[in-house]
Fold this sequence. Notes:
This is Post-GPI attachment to proteins factor 2-like. Residues 19-244 form the CWH43-like N-terminal domain. By secondary structure, the protein is mostly helical. The chain has one domain (15-250). Helices cover 71% and strands 7% of the residues. It is built from 10 helices and 3 strands. The chain has a 3-stranded antiparallel beta sheet. α5 runs antiparallel to α6 and α7 packs antiparallel against α8 (216-236). The chain is globular. Mean pLDDT is 88; it is low at 261-279.
Amino acid sequence: MAKTKSKGVVEEIFLNIPMWPFAVVTVSLPGVALFVCFVTAVIFQFDDVNETMCNVKNFIPSISAVTGVTPQTYLWRTCIALHSTPRFAVCLFTYNHYVSRAHSVHPQRLAKYMFLIKVNFWLNFVENSCLTLVAYITNRENYPIHEKIFVVFMVTSLAYMLLNTILFNWSRAGSFSETDRVSYYWKKVMFASIATATAGLLASFILHRVYCVVGAFSVFSACEYVIAYTNMGYHFTAYLDFKDRSFLFGRLCPYPRNNNESSSLAVTNNNVKLKNKAH
């Protein structure tokens, strides 16, 4: 039998998934799928996935290229679908976690904090939605739409990482446990890495599209992979924030009445009855 924080007790538990296997499987789905798509595409479809708009030599295919060819696209779409479902759940977990930490926030920041955690939720939600859409609308099928979805994904991803890192710090009010310190450190490292890679991606994209510089698209693609795996690493830090939690499926029952309160109430009722009889 398990207790919830404020709702009651959970009985007849039919499913109990600890956070560690949940986090590993969720992050591994796109991570392993992307690796398999890259390796197989480079080995068996090198010329096809390295084709560029400028017709310049390229040796590192983009993520869109290796996940947009068949049969790799089937693997990629399947893994993203399986990955995105629990990610939507984590959006809600993160929001509720920050709500529960509101008591630790400095009073002068509390109103702003409560507003920003809502913004944080929607940034995370839109990021995950765009990841799903960009997997199902490939650059080969509809490049203009694919490109726009990718841009929204990048913007919301960066904004979420920055805001989430700030909120994580605010919700601890400078009082960090050892696990909190590790989580906060890796959040900052991952954000700094993805911000640097994004700058490289933008610069190389301009060099490729405007000046058709040889090798620029390879740099662009390399930055894409850094961004992808850094993004996965950042989201994996949620394990540190929820590592003592589990997914439970069972029956939620209200807390039983406190025995002391019940005894006091019974004594009071008996005294009232005795007084009534005396009268």
